[in-house]
Amino acid sequence: MAIGSFDGVHLGHQSIVRDVVQEAKRSGIKSRLLTFYPRPSEYFAADKILPSLMSWREKVCFLASLGLDDVICMPFNKRLSRLPADQFVQQILVEGLNAKYLTVGEDFHFGAKRGGNAELLKTLSESAGFRVQIAQTQLDESSRISSTRIRQCLIEGDMRAAERMLGRPYRLGGRVIRGKQLGRTIGVPTANLHLKRTRLCVNGVFTAVVWLDGEAKPAILNVGYRPAVDQLEKPLLEVHLLNYDGDLYGQYLEVDLLHKLRDEQKFDSIEELTAQIQADVQTAQHWHNNRKVKSAD
Fold it and tell me: Can you state the angle between helices 159-166 and 147-156, rounded to 10 degrees?
């Protein structure tokens, strides 16, 4: 088993999951991951915590792709938050889940008031009848990889650093819904993706790729609250596929954000907005073309 929030499923998380999957195969038992909803940090400070890196759907799908047999979600509530560390081990891990082998990160904490840590878990496991492996910290440029660092990189628009720590481009997904079709009137039709989140780590205009039938299509997107049009209450992702003509309504699309071009901004007229969008599209096309040339080299 592995235990934790696993927000973003970055390279450190992936190392833990790989260890669990490999040990389960060696031992002939199931590999499981226990996570919590909401994240404990969200439960205790919902008004202050930064947004999640992934939606619940995105997290479960990616974890499943790593070879786990089960992903278990436990509601994080008042009862669980007050459960002492030793009782968490006995009631949840031993009696509830029959754990035989656990891998956790060095910074793992559990139990009421974060009273338990990885070393205490190792001590308690001796009498509880399971083994504990404490995973080595994964580093990026001499600093520990963490969900907090990745969030900050995304907020600052440093997509390359975020990609290094995630082990893949930062991805958003959603189902295409009908919008106001303003883009069509100015020659830049967009697919509007409904994001089931009220807050995001990213905001602005980005170069991107959209995954269609297993193929990465070059694109440009705007994600945020559309201050230039109607100032939305919830974030919306609008993506324009370069050199593509097709009906995407109703499809669930996954979009990789590659490079930030600019922040969202408000314009004084539709003409100014149109000119900026057309300039952004040209910049994105040049960026993708240059990337293709570098890839060929």
Answer: 160
